[in-house]
Every structure is written in structure tokens, then in C-alpha cells.
UniProtKB/TrEMBL annotation:
The keyword Transferase applies. It comes from Clostridium polyendosporum. It is found in: Cytoplasm. This is Adenosylmethionine-8-amino-7-oxononanoate aminotransferase. InterPro entries: Aminotrans_3, Aminotrans_3_PPA_site, BioA, PyrdxlP-dep_Trfase, PyrdxlP-dep_Trfase_major, PyrdxlP-dep_Trfase_small. Homodimer. It catalyses: (8S)-8-amino-7-oxononanoate + S-adenosyl-L-methionine = S-adenosyl-4-methylsulfanyl-2-oxobutanoate + (7R,8S)-7,8-diammoniononanoate. Gene3D superfamilies: Aspartate Aminotransferase, domain 1 (3.90.1150.10), Type I PLP-dependent aspartate aminotransferase-like (Major domain) (3.40.640.10). Pyridoxal 5'-phosphate binds at residues 113-114, 252, 317-318. GO terms for cellular component: cytoplasm. The modification N6-(pyridoxal phosphate)lysine is found at residue 281. The keyword ATP-binding does not apply. GO terms for biological process: biotin biosynthetic process.
Length: 448
């Protein structure tokens, strides 16, 4: 353990960790980054296969973004966002309205994903109250959903690992059974699927729509549940049902926005527009805490009136509209346009797909390889035929993570699901290194 690690463990409580694990494998202290690589204080380098928690788009310490940030700092770093505004926030908001699906016309700024979810829930609930439909007080979600870790976000999430102990603190949510394509109950495969699994949601909405203000969903990929990918037809059906029953469609694109799925926004796969959309993670290219909630004119107008009518949405976060984060986001969107990023990513994701399928073909532990855009997941199973899973206590993912780390890869498996979610600047050479080394690590684990 080096001296930084000793001090780190003396003073820091890390997120999403059992701190005891660090006795064996202390935190890796990163000194600098360049492109897809991270360099630690001991001079080791790691290929960041997960874009540092799904945030980084154009590499670490990107020259172009650094420059935009420097320019911004020399003007204004941050300014109060109530009654005041700043140029990058205005530029960004205009751009976001232009590139997001058509119903989304107003931008509400915040500073992290969970708080964007809280804002979307509050806005949706409050909207119906404004409209005098006071019975609409609940949200619907699907099984295996993840929307963040604050109490409202946990209430609409459905991963016991994160929420079970807090149940007494959470509000009541109506849950429909979501898609499960790898283990499809309807005997469909991804080609024949017509989102038959929407059946349960349809029933829930039919029965409960009078109580429902909104439904929140991760479009196309349920990330934290293990990169579970499902059909856009499900989203199309959901859009139709939400219109029919006057329920807000809240798209949580925090993980999938900004090109991750191959389209700028995941809702585009289904050709639908949500009523509210949460964006974070990639929005600031992995540089700064930042999020937005995009809403429709209809929702915005329900809050518009004289001060004395008490209609306003009195929610705030201190760092909302931070000028540095907004300047970075603007620069990031320029890179998308000027470097033809989505087109170029197609070639990269194709290569990741081919190499992964090739390696997975003869591997007895790979149940499924699935991919959408720049997200590729490898689900490991005990038995390919029965699709039986490993016990979570075996920590298969964590063990493989440790092996891969020694080989210079930063993976972060979710249970028994390994995935590649690299920065968009990853090269062909690094793609090969990433896929080959991951499979070497898988084999090494199972040889033990
Ligand atoms: C990461 C994530 C969140 C929470 O964002 P934080 O910034 O970690 O609070 C919410 N929803 C989805 C889909 C996410 O992936």
C-alpha cells in the first residue's frame, strides 16, 4: 500500500463499496489521464473500459475540452442561477431543445442524476395537482429499474441491493413486470419480438391510471440491472398508453443519452418523445457534475402565473446551471457535430461486437452477448442451456475485475454481467486489447 492509499483509507469512505474489500485491494490513486487511459501514482496504466462510471465521452484530459474549460474559468466559473443566468447555460439550453425529441422545450438545470430524477418526479406530481387532478399521486415503474440513490429515486427503483433496507423510508410505487429479453417468457427472440411483455404494463395502467401521474423508465437499456436491453416497441406501446391515460412519460436517459446507444438519445430508437427527460452522466463529457430535466411546454405552462398564485416550482440546487459545466457541455456537443461522432462510433461498435462474439463463441460461460451502440454486455452463466446464474456470493464479476486490473483493464462488472462502455475515442488497437484481455481474464478465473 502506498502512502496515498494509506491516507485515503484513513480519511475517505468510498461510494458503492464494502470498505473492507480495500484491505486486500486498496483504491487505485489516479494521477493523470489521457484519452482512454488512466495513470496511477505508481506509474501503472489502465484502459478505462467503462468511461469512468459511464460519463466520459471524448477521453480523459481532452485537449479541446480543457481549452473550453480554461476559457470559461477566465470569464466566470459559477454564478447564482435564480434571477441570474450565464452565456454557456443559455447556449446549451438552446442546443438541447434543438437536438432532443420534439415535445421537450424547456431545460431545468441541476447537478447530478439522482436530483434530476427527483425534479422530474416532483414536476410530474405537481403538474397534476396544478391541474386539479389531485388523485394522481403515484408513479409506475418496471422491475429491475435503477434511477439513483436518493430516497425518491430509490422509491421508483427496483434493485433490492440498493433499496431494501430503506423500504420504511420510501414512497409507494406501482411496479409492472418489465422486459427480460435473455430469459423471455413469451418464447420470443430479439428478431421476432413484438414487445409481448408490455402486457403486464398495459394491465397496470388500465387498472391504476387514475392514481398515476407518471411512469419513469430507462429507455432501451436498464443499465445498473446489468445492461439489460429491450425492444423499442415496448417504448412505442408505452408512449401510446401514456397519452391515452394522461400519464407523463419520464425518460431517464442519464446513462443512455449522448450517443451511448448509437443514437443521440435512446428514445430515438422508438421514434417517440417523452414528456420529461432526465440527462446527466455524458452531458458534461465526464468532466463535471451536471444534469438537466427537459420538459414540455404543457408542463412548463402549468407552473406559469402570478407569484401570488403559488404555482411556481420552488426547487433548487446551489450549483444549478454551473457555467464551467455548461461550457464543457457546449464544447462536447460541438465535437459530436464536427467530428461526426455517431457515424464513427458505428465502426467501433461493429468491431467490438465482432471481436466479442468471436471470443464468446467457444466460451462455456457466456450466456449472451448483447449490444446497442457503444454498450456491449457479456452475461456469464453457470450453464448456457438452463441459463442458471452464479450465486452473488461467488462474486464472479469482482474476481474477474481484479484479474483484469492486473492486466491493465478497468472493468466494472455488474454481478455476473461484464460490459464494455468505453470513451468514444477508443482506438482499434485498444478495442482489441480490451476484448482479448477481458476474455483472458474470464478464462483465468474459471481455470482456478
Ligand atoms: C447513474 C444513474 C442515475 C443516478 O445518477 P447520479 O448522478 O449517480 O445520482 C440515475 N438513473 C440512471 C439510469 C443512471 O444510470
Amino acid at each position: 500500500m502506498n502512502s496515498y492509499q494509506k491516507k485515503d483509507l484513513q480519511y475517505i469512505w468510498h461510494p458503492c463499496s464494502q470498505m473492507k474489500d480495500y484491505e486486500e485491494l486498496p483504491p487505485i490513486v489516479i494521477e493523470r489521464g489521457e484519452g482512454c487511459y488512466l495513470y496511477d501514482v505508481e506509474g501503472n496504466k489502465y484502459l478505462d473500459c467503462i468511461s469512468s462510471w459511464w460519463t466520459n465521452l471524448f477521453g480523459h484530459s481532452n485537449k479541446r475540452i480543457n481549452k473550453a474549460l480554461q476559457n470559461q474559468i477566465n470569464n466566470i466559473e459559477h454564478v447564482i442561477f435564480a434571477n441570474f443566468s450565464n452565456k454557456p447555460a443559455i447556449e446549451l439550453a438552446e442546443k438541447l431543445v434543438e437536438i432532443t425529441p420534439d415535445r421537450l422545450k424547456k431545460v431545468y438545470f441541476s447537478d447530478n442524476g439522482s436530483s434530476a430524477v427527483e425534479i422530474a418526479l416532483k414536476m410530474s406530481f405537481h403538474y397534476h395537482q396544478q391541474k386539479g387532478v389531485s388523485k394522481k399521486t403515484k408513479f409506475a415503474t418496471i422491475t429491475n429499474a435503477y434511477h439513483g440513490e436518493t430516497l425518491g429515486a430509490l422509491s421508483v427503483g427496483h434493485l433490492d441491493l440498493y433499496s431494501k433496507i430503506y423500504k420504511p423510508l420510501l414512497f409507494d410505487t406501482i411496479r409492472a413486470e418489465g422486459p427480460d429479453c435473455y430469459r423471455c417468457k413469451y418464447g420470443q427472440n430479439r428478431e421476432t419480438c413484438n414487445a409481448e411483455c408490455f402486457e403486464d404494463m398495459e394491465k397496470v395502467l388500465q387498472d391504476k391510471h387514475e392514481e398515476l401521474c407518471g411512469i419513469i423508465i430507462e429507455p432501451m437499456i436498464q443499465g445498473a440491472a446489468g445492461m439489460r436491453m429491450y425492444s423499442p416497441i415496448y417504448l412505442k406501446k408505452l408512449r401510446i398508453a401514456c397519452d391515452k391515460y394522461q400519464i407523463h412519460f419520464i425518460a431517464d436517459e442519464i446513462a443512455v443519452g449522448f450517443g451511448r446507444t448509437g443514437k443521440m438519445f435512446a428514445c430515438e430508437h422508438a421514434g417517440i418523445s417523452p414528456d420529461l427527460m432526465c440527462l446527466s452522466k455524458g452531458i458534461s463529457a465526464g468532466y463535471m457534475p451536471m444534469s438537466v430535466v427537459m420538459t414540455s411546454d404543457e408542463i412548463y405552462e402549468a407552473f406559469y402565473g402570478e407569484y401570488t398564485e403559488l404555482k411556481a416550482f420552488l426547487h433548487s440546487h446551489t450549483y444549478a446551471g454551473n457555467a464551467m459545466a455548461c461550457a464543457i457541455a457546449c464544447e462536447s456537443l460541438k465535437i459530436f457535430e464536427e467530428d461526426n461522432v455517431l457515424e464513427n462510433n458505428k465502426i467501433k461498435s461493429q468491431l467490438i461486437r465482432e471481436l466479442t462474439l468471436e471470443k464468446a463463441k467457444n466460451c462455456p460461460y457466456v450466456g449472451e452477448v448483447r449490444q446497442l451502440g457503444m454498450v456491449t454486455a457479456v452475461e456469464l452463466v453457470k450453464d448456457k442451456v438452463t441459463k442458471e446464474v452464479f450465486s452473488w456470493k461467488d462474486r464472479v464479476g469482482y474476481e474477474i475485475y481484479k484479474i483484469a486490473l492486473n492486466k491493465g483493464l478497468l472493468l466494472r462488472p455488474i454481478g455476473n454481467v461484464l460490459y464494455f462502455l468505453p470513451p468514444y475515442v477508443i482506438t482499434e488497437k485498444d478495442i482489441k486489447y480490451m476484448v482479448n484481455t477481458t476474455f483472458e481474464s474470464i478464462y483465468e478465473y474459471f481455470r482456478k
